[in-house]
Amino acid sequence: MNREPFNVLWLQSGGCGGCSMSLLCADTTDFHAMLRGAGIKLLWHPSLSLESGHEVRKLLDDCVEGRVRVDALCVEGALLRGPNGTGRFHHLAGTQVPMIAWVRRLAGVARHVVAIGSCAAWGGVSAGDPNPTEACGLQYEDEHAGGLLGAEFRSASGLPVVNVAGCPTHPGWVLDTLMALAEGLLSAAELDPLNRPRFYADQLVHHGCTRNEYYEFKASAEKPSDLGCMMEHMGCKGTQAHADCNTRLWNGEGSCTRGGYACVSCTEPGFQEPHHPFHVTPKVAGIPIGLPTDMPKAWFVALASLSKSATPKRVKHNAVADRIVVPPAVRRTRLK
């Protein structure tokens, strides 16, 4: 049985366009065909569509007036409310109308509203202090509900803004979210307390990290090229960041930690201003402030002390090297 396509309208506001760039790294050789195969029609995207000028203006007017159905309004980038709440810092090109006005109008008729990336979700990098553009997210300002549309906003489906957070987002998070919405499979129960889809937000970056053996023994990296765990000294927040980056790899094979970079927790509100250098772990009395999200501090201190006392020499040496210098011992492992 043929059914109507799931219409997606994509707007870009105050941001770098990195989430669209990431989306193009989706695991397919034909991006548009993949969308069509899932029953999704991309009404317009500022970089991926041919229409421009009066053609786009007519499409937007048709959407607002209900002549074209909008099943999902996707917004990438923070919403720029300045100066003084007028939104005049950012007009949608050729319309002389502030982007925030277009977003409010379209959100009012869309079945679903989706924030693509941490800028659209919480304000992100675009809202960094002193925030001269008055940037905010669609329904949040950092961790505080509100944003452009207000804490009580619900789309025609009854859902709040779906926050596909990340800087940038993983293409799989975006596509899986749109496909779930198209199939009616993303209910309020499938969203976490910050309205992120649980299929990726109920995971931690720590899960599947290739440095987990070093983490278990608290064998820590001391400089960027080291193989050891980056939590203790290098600012890694993988035990706190909600994402599946190390189990759903980027481009099929990579992640920040696998590339030697500490996780900066880019899916979380306020990640852009940690109040310390990203590559440094702040500590009190030698204990990292940012502990795993669900572990009491006393337990962590006790576990870390025991782990370090039991660390094999192999792990200690390899943790502060840029390659494996001591391989695992070769021993018989057959049961007797």
Name a few traits of the molecule:
5-stranded parallel beta sheet, 336 residues, Rossmann fold, alpha/beta, Cytochrome-c3 Hydrogenase, Chain A, domain 2, 13 strands, signal, iron-sulfur
What can be said about this structure in brief?
This protein is of the alpha/beta class and 336 residues long.
Question: How would you characterize this protein structure?
Answer:
The protein is of the alpha/beta class. The chain has two domains: 194 residues, Rossmann fold (3-Layer(aba) Sandwich), CATH 3.40.50.700; 123 residues, Cytochrome-c3 Hydrogenase, Chain A, domain 2 (Irregular). 24% of the residues lie in helices and 12% in strands. The protein is built from ten helices and 13 strands. The strands form five sheets. A five-stranded parallel β-sheet has the order 2-1-3-7-11, sandwiched between helices. The protein has a two-stranded antiparallel sheet with strand order 4-8. A two-stranded antiparallel sheet has the order 5-6. A hairpin with a 4-residue loop joins strand 5 and strand 6. The longest helix has 13 residues. The relative contact order is 0.11.
As residue ranges, the low-confidence spans are none
CATH C-level class of the largest domain is: Alpha Beta
Q: What is the CA-based Rg, rounded?
A: 23 Å
What is the helical fraction, as a range of percent?
Answer: 10-25%
Can you tell me the CATH architecture of the largest domain? 3-Layer(aba) Sandwich
In CATH, the topology of the largest domain is named Rossmann fold
Strand content: 5-15%
State the helix count.
10
Report the count of strand segments.
13
Domain Cytochrome-c3 hydrogenase C-terminal: 203-278
EC number: 1.12.99.6
Subunit structure: Heterodimer of a large and a small subunit.
Cofactor: [4Fe-4S] cluster; [3Fe-4S] cluster
